[in-house]
Amino acid sequence: MLVAAILAIAAPLPALAQAETIATLVVNGETLAEVLAIEDGDSLFVEAEILLPFLVGLLDPAVAEALRELADPIGLDDIRSMGMAAMWDPSTLVLELVLPPGLMPPRDITILKRPAPPEGRPIKQEGFSATLNLAARIGVAGDGGNLYIPFSVESDLFLNVYTWVIEAGADIRTSGTPLSLALGRARLVKDFTSAGLRLVGGRIEVPTTGYLSGPRLVGLSLQSMDFRRTARGMDPPVDDIVVDSDATLRILLNGAPIRTVHLGPGTYRLSDMGFATGVNDLSVIVEQAGSDPVTIRRVVPYDLSALARGTMDFAVSTGILEETSPRALATGFVRYGLTDSLEAGLGAQAGFGGFLGQGSLIVASGIGNLGLEAALVLPLGSDDYVTAWAASARYRLGFPGRPGLPTVGLNARYSSAGFTPPLADLPAQPAAPTLRVAAVVSMQLPGSVAAGLSAETSLEPGGGDASYAAMLTLQKRVAAGLTGSCTVSLSGTSGGSLTPGMTLSLVSSPPGTRRSFQYTQDAIDRTSSFDLSDASGADTELEWGVRGRNVLAAPGQASALSGTARLRGYSGDLGLSAALDVDPEDGASGSVYLSGSSALVYAGGLFAICRTVADSFVLLAPRGDLGDRTVTLLVGSASSGLSAGQGDIASALLPAYRPTQAFADIAGGEPEDSVKEQFLVLSPGYRSGTVVRPQMKRMLTVAGRLLDRDGKPITWVPGTVVDASGRVVGSGFTDGDGRFEFYGLEPGAYTVEWLSRPPSAITFELAEDGPVTVDIGECVAAPRAAEGNP
Prior knowledge:
By secondary structure, this protein is mostly beta strands. The protein is built from four helices and 57 strands.
């Protein structure tokens, strides 16, 4: 008996069987999900394809992949071997993981607050649209006893045919002479927005940079375009910030706080930050509980004129001059951002008997920003050009946001004898070698005083004439919107006398208004001028201005006085101007002009008259029977919108390639009246027309009482309203008496699917011309697949 007991005790215990269980996954104190796991004694295993998806964004991808390769399923010891803490509590069925910051992927802290994209139904531009801008001017002018009536009409036509834009323009003028007709723009424009390219054919203006000339040609041009026009930002040179506990991150740029962020444990990376041109001072202060604040300070040089890292700007053009003997020109350039502080560029131009090649470099550094350009001209089968070269350097050292530090600028430019880029009309005499040097120093002084000192010299090496100029400007902010300044200058030439100058000015621009006044007095020659203007910001307002020169002139001085007024209207602008000039030698002359401008637009079969269209436009044309109601459309951030009744058309101007939020609503209707789609996103292209056709809808209410087949109310049951297309349009509950109500329904047939036991449904229909609130009475619930019984 004793032996049997001993043998029973010594016999090995049977192995515990593995069992599946549902575990609550908690990572860094946050409950994520319920996961299927395998419990084996005191340990727990989870398949990789179940666990790892919940760790995406929380665990470094390289660590997650290493964990997958280590074991599958993944056990607690496997997790711990990677440096993480893993705890399993069988009593609460909780699997808790603690990921240290070093194993978490960096999370970006975006500094620039970019606006969220607008939400709503997208409204695209019409396939065909047209814009005709017209501006006319007529007046009466006279001088020395002569009287004449000048007259002019300027017109511009834009046809958008499925994003291909045809542009044409013509001017008609007369001023005491026979009418003259001059053709203006005549070109075809096609934008490839996804590629960021614009193709232009016809009369083109050559895009230029540096030393390249920019004549107008008849030809083709292809250039890069930034259609999004987003604010530019860069990633600051700050290493990843590791936070072990709850912390506060404060970011200061040039001494000004720009962002405060509260963070949990993890690794963070600063990104998309905006800087000013110059040497920026960036401070990042990390404050963690129980630790001293840590300050990270960086000097960030920046040049806004340089391209961002990895971006490119280029243009290529070719064409001929409009002459009896056409001459061709081919030109192009490319600029590329090598880093956020280094840009390089190349350019070339060939034609008119000469060739020009150039290179450029922009460098932003902690000791200032430097821009370099150099160009070489070679003759191409023509004696009009000689081999020559030119170079320029631009240096700027500034400290934005720190008024106590000066801003320094230096510019130098040299061109050798005969340096001339390819031009249609060459100067009569070859250009002499020229050296120009300019310098400027400016800073903010105590007492709201700004000071600037500049000097410039231009000379011709080899004995030519030289000129010199220096200027000192002091500016004082006297009060809010009132500034006074004094400028003292000295100029002269080699071998000549020096000419002094002194100018006093006063500028007033009251805050909150668009009214301005400027008075300038020359203390040397005693001439003066003033400019008074007022421009209201309303859509239909009067803008006016008065300008004068030597109004109280001394004997022998010429004087002038002029005034303008413009009435900005919904359908166009009207203007009136008058001028009077008095010269002691030539006598008096004066003029009075009346002007007007307007535009005729077409899109989607609709015509409208509006103000001159600078880019694109939108038309509001409500549909349906509105009665005495009107539809309003708020476009963008405008405080006042468009209004149109039945059969009316209203218009507004839009910027191209900038998605614009619009909101449509009914004005003057009942509370249940609305439009079918209120939130819209307008997406116009270049010189395009967009049409918004809102349609009114009535928001109806249905009420009833839900009963079972025995006539008893079905209480506290949720229901979903589905329209005839199967779309869910509402939901609700029955109350303790089986009553229900559903709001915001349009006329049509509906089914209510009730989550009763068993599932049931009812159907009903709302008429177009019925009452606003419809009581369908007692409804007997029927099986879900059967028709309801209203």
